[in-house]
């Protein structure tokens, strides 16, 4: 039947064009989200026995789950701080009129294009206690060899993650810096403010929205880190790098407990969503308007 | 003096980012003995180009390459077909439930992949789609980021252009194809680039959804290969170089778009 009104015809076209998307998001986003919640209330090898909140109470009391969550938060905090400090420093340097700016920008961005598989394997090789090139070079130079992945495993994989992602935060900060009108700095210069002052009083406050965005993105990706733990450390030594998603992966696909792993997924999702909303809210309130 | 300081910082940072990747290249050209020698070999005595050929005989690496190309290629194509179409609808059409549907779409941005991982695995297992191309491809056919990017890009296109085409009697699909799509080319380039690079590098889902070596993509094939033959670092490095080269080449030619894409959207 042909809709009679013009508005009706446009609406029909709109729905026709949207149909594939509606089906896709229903089948591959909303159905799975519904399923993961439904499965989280079930237990048993087939995840077919109802257990109510059993998986949740078990997860909240499970020291392994708590531990993996805490180290995941610690890992994210390390990555966020590093991303902001280093990304901002590099962006500030690249914001200056220097020769070869494009070359530096390209070189710094390259690791961001690599797969976590490359990053993981490459750094596992470099950092290996005996085989690793770093220790062999230290040894050749007569310096004591280091066991980074044993003495500071979490810090080390956070540093590797930072190595991969700092170019990305640098580009975001660079875009933020270029959005600050030159006149603010010139006015401050005339008023006699030195570079240090101008940075703290003008640049940093005006960059607040960018900084917020960078930190939200970095926390969210930090909380989801998987490849680093899977490839570099296999969660170890002991459980030192048993990051949450790696833990969930193991409960699901190695221990084959879909109910328990689903409940842990939902808990981690709740944390991520709550965190995102709080951050966005804070951002809206604190946003500087001119 | 201040300039010297800035250059020092930038050169130091660039060395830290690039040297490990150059070492990967060096490692891929070393003999197995060189990779194990007590002195760190930084430049191999004679480059072992044969390592790259050996990779294809020691593991089904040819399969990995084909699988990666098929999966990342198909997903990129799907994004290029669907994301602008959906973006156009949300940018230019008025219809009931428009805002509700748009919010429902954007809400999916807050759902990280690990949340979908277990139910998708069960779904694919039930459909018999584990270890198949459709299993690797379908969960990623579209995403809200791409749709949002295209909507932002299409919104400023004047409505008069669309009205004029309607008055001329063009069909809605024709308007989309001949009026809207040609104008979105720069945005499509960014979208295609990002989608391909991220899917080419994707690790978690191909790890979960494949069970035989023949169906693995390069990132997953490499890590499992490395576990099985963990001392063969020269081959692992050669495989990493093969995985890295396409994105590196793509990036060199398009770095302007790439940087603008990140700056505009903060894409992932």
Question: Can you offer a commentary on this structure?
Answer:
The complex is a heterodimer of chains A (290) and B (268). Chain A is mostly helical and 290 residues long. Chain A has helices at 6-40, 54-61, 63-94, 101-109, 116-127, 133-140, 148-151, 153-178, 182-190, 195-206, 208-223, 227-233, 244-254, 258-286, and strands at 42-43, 49-50. In chain A, β1 and β2 form a beta hairpin. With 268 residues, chain B is mainly α. In chain B, 74% of the residues lie in helices and 0% in strands. Chain B is built from 14 helices and no strands. Chain B has helices at 2-28, 32-36, 50-58, 61-92, 98-107, 113-127, 133-137, 144-154, 159-167, 172-180, 185-201, 204-209, 218-228, 233-265. Chain B is globular. The two termini of chain B are 37 Å apart. Classes of the chains: A mainly alpha (290), B mainly alpha (268). At the A-B interface, α1, α3, α4, α5 and α6 of A face α1, α4, α5, α6 and α11 of B.
Strand content of chain A: under 5%
Q: Describe the global form of chain B.
A: globular
For this structure, the quaternary state is: heterodimer
What is the average per-residue confidence, as pLDDT of chain B, rounded to a whole number?
A: 90
> What structural category do the secondary elements of chain B indicate?
mainly alpha
Weakly predicted, low-confidence segments of chain A: 286-290
For the biggest sheet of chain A, the summary is:
2 strands, antiparallel
């Amino acid at each position: 039947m042909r809709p009679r009104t013009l508005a009706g015809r446009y609406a029909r076209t709109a729905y026709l064009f949207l149909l594939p998307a509606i089906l896709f998001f229903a089948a591959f986003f909303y159905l799975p989200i519904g399923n993961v919640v439904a499965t989280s209330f079930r237990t048993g090898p087939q995840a077919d026995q109802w257990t109510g909140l059993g998986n949740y109470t078990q997860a909240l009391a499970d020291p392994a789950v708590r531990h993996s969550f805490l180290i995941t938060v610690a890992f994210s905090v390390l990555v966020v701080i590093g991303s902001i400090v280093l990304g901002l420093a590099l962006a500030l340097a690249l914001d200056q009129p220097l020769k070869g700016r494009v070359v530096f920008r390209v070189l710094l961005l390259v690791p961001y294009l690599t797969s976590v598989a490359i990053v993981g394997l490459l750094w596992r090789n470099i950092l290996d206690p005996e085989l690793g090139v770093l220790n062999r070079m230290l040894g050749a130079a007569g310096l004591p060899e280091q066991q980074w992945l044993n003495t500071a495993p979490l810090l080390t994989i956070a540093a590797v993650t930072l190595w991969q992602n700092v170019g990305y935060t640098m580009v975001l900060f660079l875009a933020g810096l270029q959005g600050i009108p030159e006149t603010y700095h010139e006015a401050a210069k005339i008023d006699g403010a030195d570079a240090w002052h101008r940075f703290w009083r003008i640049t940093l406050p005006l960059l607040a929205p960018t900084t917020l965005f960078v930190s939200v993105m970095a926390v969210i990706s930090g909380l989801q880190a998987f490849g680093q733990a899977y490839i570099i450390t296999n969660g170890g030594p002991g459980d030192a790098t048993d990051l949450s998603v790696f833990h969930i992966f193991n409960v699901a696909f190695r221990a084959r407990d879909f109910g328990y792993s689903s409940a842990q997924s939902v808990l981690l999702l709740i944390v991520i969503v709550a965190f995102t909303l709080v951050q966005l809210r804070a951002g809206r309130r604190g946003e500087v308007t001119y | 003096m201040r300039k010297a300081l800035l250059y020092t910082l930038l050169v130091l940072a660039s060395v830290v980012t690039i040297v490990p990747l150059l070492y990967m290249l060096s490692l891929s050209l070393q003999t197995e003995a060189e990779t194990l020698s007590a002195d760190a070999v930084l430049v191999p005595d004679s480059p072992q180009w044969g390592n790259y050929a050996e990779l294809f005989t020691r593991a089904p690496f040819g399969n990995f390459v084909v699988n990666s190309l098929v999966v990342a290629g198909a997903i990129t194509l799907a994004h290029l077909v669907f994301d602008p179409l959906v973006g156009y609808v949300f940018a230019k059409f008025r219809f009931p439930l428009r805002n509700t549907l748009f919010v429902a779409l954007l809400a999916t941005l807050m759902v990280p992949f690990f949340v979908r991982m277990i139910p998708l695995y069960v779904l694919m297992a039930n459909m018999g789609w584990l270890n198949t191309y459709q299993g690797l491809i379908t969960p990623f056919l579209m995403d809200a980021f791409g749709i949002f990017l295209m909507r932002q890009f299409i919104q400023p296109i004047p409505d008069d252009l669309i009205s004029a085409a309607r008055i001329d009697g063009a069909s809605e699909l024709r308007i989309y194809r001949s009026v809207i799509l040609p104008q979105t080319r720069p945005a499509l380039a960014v979208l295609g680039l990002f989608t391909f690079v991220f899917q080419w590098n994707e690790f978690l889902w191909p790890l979960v959804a494949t069970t035989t070596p023949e169906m693995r993509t390069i990132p997953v094939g490499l890590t499992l290969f490395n576990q099985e033959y963990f001392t063969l670092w020269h081959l692992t490095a050669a495989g990493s170089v093969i995985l890295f080269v396409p994105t590196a080449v793509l990036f060199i030619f398009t770095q302007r778009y790439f940087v603008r894409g990140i700056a505009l959207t903060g894409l992932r």
